[in-house]
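Could you help me review a protein record that somebody else here produced? Here is the record exactly as it was handed to me:
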Amino acid sequence: MITSFFIALNIIIFIYVNYFYFDSLSLDIILGLNLFFLQGYYWQILSSIFMHGNWTHLILNMIVLFQFGSILEKYLKSFKFALLYLAGGILCSLLSVFYIYLSFDGGFVNVVGASGAICVLMGFYAYLDKSATKGLIIAILLMSFVPIFMGINVAWYAHIFGFICGYILAKFGIIK
């Protein structure tokens, strides 16, 4: 139920942003500081976890969200699953902000954080199912770095942060 809600919300936000032009939902980072600090765009830390770069990004993420979300929602129940997705996504967004702050000297970076939140689910599942852990680590590395070699700009660090956050949340029983 919550998984379906998150999928619908991702689709609605994608259509709204791309066809009605409301661009302040993604995590905008300017000169190492983001708009949610500079101009009070506090919702960006949360709203960015529902943002996608294009239709392919949206469709692939929704497939993975359905796959892992369905399993984890049954395991955790709806409320704890929603908490995992939202808290993990927010944590991943914050880590991405700090990474960008430390790594980029000036300029503008626009981060769409849906993949990070979805990678939280993959990391959580990797801890629960030890037989899937190696395969999921390989999948994260492939989805993070293969597009870069193809000339596609990907926030690889958000994938890695998301996976690690999910794994840690499961390992230490923060959400169980």
